[in-house]
């Protein structure tokens, strides 16, 4: 995969991303993902690289939560210089961490905090890319009033213990809403997903029952419901299934015109996700040092904080043995934290606050 002949020239794809067709260290599913990633990556780049004498192709993989912004970043960044190109494939947070930990690809992306073992063995760090908000979404025909949820109520619903939309725990938080007598149809994300990690972390912080029975995990053992593979699938299933409830990054709900609920925060206020309330949660945790980078933002203090806020992270190796590749990656990262932030906002995500951006850029420039 080092080179591929184009129509007029023979471009060379300089890449540290090994993408083996079969390696003993990978599971069968991981092997299939690597093969698929390789094919998408090579075929997709052929027309572009046919115009370049030599190109560094930076490859990332991970969560579908930020997939729209990585797609947009790729489209715009790749116009700047044909000698440095970027591709991103959404295969799930856990798979993205596995690949970058094994030295496959140039970066991973997702919403799960790295474990101490992953940081040490993979020589990895996580840097915040943008801010996200995970929102509860639902499909209740005839209900035009915005619903309110607490962490305790969401925990009861996703544990299968509140089963009907007019059940008293829902009615108590929504006294002015005429709730239908409909069974609740739970839709969840399958194993390895970053939105699972953020959602279960919030539920674990607000419900001792959920913390004991499920806990914080990208692969929670959901006791009820049906899965939705990607974030876009979650939005589609909830939109098309009467009586359903799920959870998704806020911009997916907005773009699909799906109702999303207000969630009670640690100050006792019911808050909707918005760029302002998501940034408020970040500010409450990060200020005044603005250097925590890998910290949790769920259930943050502050009256204006949206409680299911998180970073979506870049997972990066701290060292590279390829100086040219490292320089290309540094160029991409610096672009992500300048022009890329404005593009993220246009896609419905929340930009990192300026004091945090300054600290992140300093850390990027220290990578070798």
List segments where confidence is low: pLDDT < 50 over at least 5 consecutive residues. Answer: 1-32, 42-49
Task: Provide mean pLDDT, rounded.
Answer: 89
Question: How is the biggest beta sheet arranged?
Answer: 9 strands, mixed
User: Can you tell me the overall shape?
Assistant: elongated
Quaternary structure state of the chains depicted: single chain
Total domain units: 2
Distance between the termini: 25 Å
Helix and strand pattern: EHEHEHEHEEHHEHHEHEHEEHEHHH
Number of helices: 14
The assigned CATH architecture of the largest domain is 3-Layer(aba) Sandwich
Q: Bin the helical content.
A: 25-40%
Structural class: alpha/beta
- What is the assigned CATH homologous superfamily of the largest domain? Periplasmic binding protein-like II
Query: What is the CATH first-level class name of the largest domain?
Result: Alpha Beta
Task: Explain how this protein is built.
The protein is an alpha/beta fold. The chain folds into two domains: 12-132 and 316-364, Periplasmic binding protein-like II (D-Maltodextrin-Binding Protein, domain 2), CATH 3.40.190; 134-309, D-Maltodextrin-Binding Protein, domain 2, CATH 3.40.190.10. It contains 14 helices and twelve strands. Strands 1, 2, 3, 4, 5, 7, 8, 9 and 12 form a nine-stranded mixed beta sheet that branches. Helix 5 (151-158) crosses helix 7. The longest helix has 22 residues, at 28-49. The protein starts with 11 loop residues before the first strand and ends with a helix.
């Amino acid at each position: 995969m080092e080179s591929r002949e184009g129509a007029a020239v023979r471009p060379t794809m300089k890449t540290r991303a090994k993408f083996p067709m079969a390696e003993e260290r990978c599971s069968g599913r991981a092997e299939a993902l690597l093969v698929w990633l390789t094919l998408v990556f090579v075929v997709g780049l052929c027309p572009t690289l046919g115009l370049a004498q030599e190109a560094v192709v930076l490859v990332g993989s991970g969560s579908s939560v930020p997939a729209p912004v990585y797609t947009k970043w790729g489209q715009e960044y790749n116009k700047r210089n044909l000698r440095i190109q970027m591709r991103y494939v959404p295969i799930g947070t856990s798979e993205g961490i596995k690949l970058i930990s094994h030295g496959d690809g140039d970066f991973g992306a997702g919403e799960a905090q790295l474990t101490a073992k992953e940081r040490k063995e993979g020589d990895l760090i996580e840097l915040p890319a943008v801010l996200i908000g995970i929102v509860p979404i639902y499909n209740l025909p005839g209900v035009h009033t915005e619903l309110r949820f607490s962490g305790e109520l969401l925990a009861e619903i996703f544990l299968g213990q509140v089963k009907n939309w007019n059940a008293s725990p829902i009615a108590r938080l929504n006294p002015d809403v005429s709730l239908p007598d409909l069974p609740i149809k739970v839709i969840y994300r399958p194993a390895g997903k970053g939105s699972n990690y953020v959602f279960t972390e919030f539920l674990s912080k607000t419900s001792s029952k959920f913390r004991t029975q499920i806990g914080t995990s990208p692969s929670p053992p959901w006791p009820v419901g049906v899965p939705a593979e990607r974030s876009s699938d979650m939005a589609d299933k909830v939109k098309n299934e009467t009586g359903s409830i799920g959870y998704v990054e806020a911009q997916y709900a907005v773009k699909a015109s799906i109702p999303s609920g207000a969630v009670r925060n640690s100050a006792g206020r019911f808050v909707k996700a918005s760029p302002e309330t998501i940034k408020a949660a970040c500010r409450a945790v990060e200020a005044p040092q603005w250097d925590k980078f890998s910290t949790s933002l769920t259930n943050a203090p502050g009256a204006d904080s949206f409680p299911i806020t998180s970073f979506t992270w870049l997972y990066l190796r701290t060292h590279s043995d390829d100086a040219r590749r490292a320089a290309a990656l540094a160029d991409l990262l610096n672009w992500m934290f300048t022009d890329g932030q404005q593009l993220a906002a246009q896609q419905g995500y929340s930009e990192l606050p300026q004091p945090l951006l300054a600290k992140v850029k300093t850390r990027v420039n220290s990578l070798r």
